[in-house]
UniProtKB/TrEMBL annotation:
SUPFAM superfamilies: P-loop containing nucleoside triphosphate hydrolases. This is DNA 3'-5' helicase. GO terms for biological process: recombinational repair. GO terms for cellular component: cytosol. ATP binds at G223, V224, A225, G226, S227, G228, K229, T230. It holds the Pfam family UvrD_C. It comes from Butyricimonas paravirosa. Residues 202-533 form the UvrD-like helicase ATP-binding domain. Keywords: ATP-binding, Helicase, Hydrolase, Isomerase, Nucleotide-binding.
Length: 686
């Protein structure tokens, strides 16, 4: 007999579950109150009794801490219960184990586990539990999952999906498929929120494999635009926090994200999944940190702007060379060269009668080669003086010690990293490859190699406590940057991106290049694109074909291309499109320009037609709902119900990097896309 066979029975069961959760909430509230009262009693006792003996104080202190810890975990539980009251579960599978004789289990799956202490049974299973994986991986029929004690085989006889909101069941679907297409279609057709949302109810099989991959040391996810890479990476973090509880907490995870707006945009997913948000940083922050924030540098955004503007061929060449593996191997050879040639030992006369011979000093420089070059001087001095004390009974004074150390330091050719870096380019006979900008500002492409040399000379900063590193927009970082990341964060990693969406075509990395830079790493692919309608995805494919991409069959309006005689007409048409958007059910509109300067200009111009425009610059820190005007670079990773791409003329979109920008802009649209231009249209518009 099937448990809760009909929809009526399911609705009644939901009511029962909600009552049980409410009982549990009342009990935890009582327990929280008891803890608070006890702590208050302790406090009053301590305040009113001045002469308590130290033993009593100690034992009270322990009790207080114990109460505090239990109190905190009860509060956590209370928070979780409050959350599951809204949507207790979203799926169900009926599973019969082949070996066991305990019959068929109806497993309800939700964001959190719910254990009923009265019935002594798990009423809801966490979506991350091993048994729940079958919900995502299997259709009706034979199924299995990996439990801690081995593979469990069995049979799924029923599969249901529910939409429950505020404790009420809106509908349920019985399905033989993994995740029912109707529900996925409904989710995908909904409008964009101001923050990325979780997709736990509709995770697809190929996505689930990535979320639950525990083997890969570095998991590299190459996924087409809109394939759910970022969502999946965040669900993976939630999964790891669940399975590795006790070993890893959200504070042990670090996200390297492209900018603050993106970090803000994704900041809701983990809390929605019941986990804390994780720390976030940027590549520039890391690299500049290695160099003690000593140098002014062109940031990545400025480099992209220069590439879009009028880059000189030499500028492009410098970026390209520094993103090559040949460059890394030259740099490594040079480090070896420094090791062999930069330390020129000389005799050091410590007293009238005592001289430390050059040969002996040189020997010590080589002896301590496990230390970075500039970190050897202290240890060498100590060792030399120890040897002299042993062999010659010479006991050096502090002044003599300082003198020796200073002299040894002087034997190393260079103190300045920049000078060493310049030497490198002389050594490879390519001095033209290094160019300092005005105001002693470094080019962005020099930041990483300079940091690499700095590590060879001074060592890495203190070992990081990061246990899992997440890198988004992987294609925008070059191999040398990955080499540094590997030195700094030898932990496990999840790295994701899409080569087709590079805003750094001369210095970008493919999944294979990243794998090569890390030596180890597993590449997994996501080929299905979920964000945009079939029509928009097909349009994007004609701008830049990705053979691996598979568009989801969700249909919508065909993208529109509007041509005008002059910029005034174009602007007035855009303002009309804005008016139509305001009357529509769509919640977000992105007006995406090629550069930030163009976005700023258009914002100013549109202000006389419409209000509530939000200009998103590279200095912005938060994403906003409504009408956003921004550049392609900033729009990367974001999505909008509707997108307008202005100024798509042949002069504005003409080069390789322009094409990438157009592709990024087009793939931000979920439901509607309009491209406008005056004069000749860009050759990239299909
Ligand atoms: N299994 C799924 N169920 C529901 N929605 C999904 C699913 N997978 C992806 N999506 C939706 O597709 C959209 C794109 O997801 P996401 O931004 O994570 O993709 P991405 O690969 O990082 O995109 P891009 O590289 O283009 O920025 C989001 O709206 C996300 O909610």
């Amino acid at each position: 007999m099937v448990f809760n066979k009909t929809e009526e029975q399911e609705k009644e069961y939901l009511r029962q579950i909600i009552n049980t959760i409410n009982d549990s909430i009342n009990n935890t509230d009582k327990s929280v109150k008891e803890h608070v009262d006890t702590l208050q009693e302790y406090k009053e006792y301590l305040w009113s009794n001045k002469d308590i003996d130290p033993h009593e104080i100690r034992s009270m202190r322990e009790s207080i801490l114990r109460h505090f810890a239990t109190g905190e975990s009860v509060i956590d539980k209370r928070k979780r219960l409050g959350k599951i009251l809204d949507i207790p579960y979203f799926g169900r599978i009926d599973f019969t184990e082949s070996k066991e004789r305990c019959g068929t289990m109806a497993l309800y799956i939700g964001i959190h586990t719910f254990y009923d202490p009265v019935k002594k049974a798990n009423l809801i299973y966490d979506w991350r539990a091993p048994i729940s994986s079958m919900f995502y991986d299997h259709e009706l029929g034979n199924a299995s999952y990996s439990s801690p004690s081995g593979e469990v085989d069995g049979n799924i006889s029923l599969k249901r999906q529910y939409r429950i909101r505020k404790g009420k069941m809106e509908y349920m679907i019985e399905s033989s498929l993994t995740v029912h297409d109707d529900i996925l279609q409904k989710e995908l057709s909904s409008n964009a929120d101001d923050k990325m949302k979780n997709i736990v109810t509709t995770i697809q099989r190929e996505q689930n494999r990535i979320i639950r991959n525990e083997e890969a040391q570095a998991l590299i996810i190459q996924g087409v635009a809109g394939s759910g890479k970022t969502s999946i990476a965040l669900h993976r973090i939630a999964y790891l926090l669940y399975t590795l509880k006790g070993e890893i907490t959200s504070k042990d995870i670090l996200i390297i994200s492209p900018n603050k707006v993106f970090a803000d945009y994704i900041s809701n997913v983990l809390p929605e999944l019941g986990e804390e948000t994780v720390p976030e940083t940027s590549m520039e922050q890391i690299l500049s940190g290695i160099l003690d924030h000593k140098y002014k540098y062109q940031n990545f955004f400025e480099q992209v702007t220069e590439l879009l503007d009028k880059p000189t061929p030499e500028f492009i060449e410098r970026i390209q060379y520094k993103a090559s593996f040949d460059f890394i191997s030259q740099l490594e050879k040079f480090i070896l060269y420094m090791e062999n040639n930069y330390f020129k030992a000389t005799d050091v006369k410590l007293t009238k009668h005592i001289t430390v011979p050059a040969e002996f000093i040189d020997e010590q420089f080589r002896r301590f080669n496990r230390y970075p070059m500039r970190k050897r001087f202290e240890t060498m001095t100590d060792y030399i003086l120890e040897m002299m004390a042993l062999r010659h009974y010479f006991k050096a004074t502090t002044a003599e010690r300082n003198l020796l150390k200073k002299e040894i330091q002087k034997m190393f050719s260079r103190n300045s990293d920049i000078q060493v870096y310049k030497d490198f380019f002389e050594w490879i006979e390519k001095p033209e490859m290094f160019k300092m900008r005005k105001n002693r500002t470094l080019e962005y492409a020099d930041l990483a190699p300079l940091a690499y040399l700095h590590i060879a000379l001074e060592g890495s900063p203190t070992p990081s406590r990061v246990k899992h590193l997440l890198i988004d927009e992987m294609q925008d970082y070059s191999p040398i940057q990955y080499k540094i990341i590997q030195k700094l964060y030898p932990c496990r990693k999840t790295i994701l991106g899409d080569t087709c969406q590079s805003v750094n075509p001369y210095g970008s990395s493919t999944a294979d290049m990243i794998q090569k830079a890390f030596i180890t790493g597993e590449v997994m692919k996501l080929c299905k694109s979920y964000r945009s309608t079939f029509e928009i995805t097909s349009f994007a494919q004609r701008i830049q074909t990705n053979e691996e991409l598979e568009a989801i069959t969700r249909h919508g309006e065909k993208p529109t291309i509007l041509s005008f005689k002059n910029p005034e007409k174009e602007l007035s048409a855009i303002s009309e499109l804005i008016t139509t958007f305001k009357k529509s059910t769509y919640k977000s509109l992105g007006i995406i320009c090629k550069t930030e300067m163009q976005a700023q200009e258009i914002t100013e111009e549109l202000k006389s037609y419409t209000d509530n425009l939000y200009f998103l610059s590279h200095q912005s820190t938060a994403f906003a709902k409504g009408i956003i005007v921004t550049s392609s670079h900033m729009a990367k990773g974001l999505e909008f119900d509707e997108v307008i791409i202005p100024q798509a003329s042949s002069t504005n979109y003409n080069t390789l990097i322009d094409k990438s920008m157009l592709y990024v802009a087009v793939t931000r649209a979920m439901h509607k896309l309009t491209i406008t231009h005056w004069g000749k249209p860009s050759r990239f518009i299909p």
